[in-house]
Amino acid sequence: MDKTKTKAPQVRWELLGERFTAAVLAGNENEAHRQVARLRTNGVPLREIVTNLFAVAAKAVGDGWADDEVSVAVEHRSSEILTRLLGELHPRMPGRRRGVAVVATCQDEHHTLPTTMAAVALREDRWNVEHLGSGVPARGLVRFATDVEADVVVLSVTMSELVEPTQSLARAIARAGIPALVGGPGRTLEELCDLAADAILPD
Fold it and tell me: How far apart are CA 15 and CA 8, in angstroms?
């Protein structure tokens, strides 16, 4: 008997990313949903889907808006579509939980899409996630993370002028005894999950 295993077909991420982005920009939420559903049915990990579809589409939308090729209305519609689709991704990973991760942004950062992507990736990596979204006041965030006995706090920042305030917030959280990570453009979800796991390793 031939016991050679048939390899799963390779996902053509570049093509799928283009199709997904086109559907999102066109406001075709049903088509974007179908593309995600097919990948999930085929057992593709959520982190790969988020990285290769959602992050790609979010960057394309943001770049298009910055280059005045995508209107503000289309940018908002696209972001809402991506947020709703991400909200439908509910990983149920077996095994012991790693700990509690709080995901948020500093008070003046109002982009919620990156925090939502981070929350999905961390849940798939067996974290219990408290997703606070954007614009959380510093004192309230430190208090909340302490109250829920967070093991790590993940802060997202998209605007260059908010990098320093976000890092300052991370230092305040660290002084409260909770590791804090700052994620932004150029950081991958793979790196985020690795850093979060490393943050709870014993010294």
Answer: 18
What distances in angstroms separate CA 140 from CA 89, 136, 182, one per listed residue?
Answer: 28, 7, 18
Residue with token string 């406001």: 27
Q: Are 79 and 71 in contact (CB under 8 A)?
A: no
pLDDT of residue 1: 42
Q: Residues 149, 158, 166, 140: is their CA dihedral positive or negative?
A: negative
Residue whose token pair is 């606070």: 132
Q: pTM score, two decimals? A: 0.85
* Rounded CA separation 149/119 (Å): 17
Neighbours of 34 (CB within 10 A): 12
- Residue 183 CA to residue 189 CA, distance in Å, equals 9
In the three-class reduction of DSSP (H, G, I as helix; E, B as strand; rest coil), residue 6 is classed as coil
Q: Which of 125, 135, 136 is nearest to 188 (CA)?
A: 125
- Across the range 8-25, mean pLDDT stands at 88
Please, are residues 107 and 136 in contact by the beta-carbon 8 Å criterion? Answer: yes
Helix/strand number for the chain, H first, E second: 9, 4
Give the DSSP H/E element, type plus range, for residue 128: strand 127-133
Is residue 2's pLDDT more than 50? no
Task: Find the radius of gyration of the CA atoms of the chain.
Answer: 18
Q: What is the pLDDT of residues 134-161, one digit of tens each?
A: 999 999 999 999 999 999 999 999 888 9
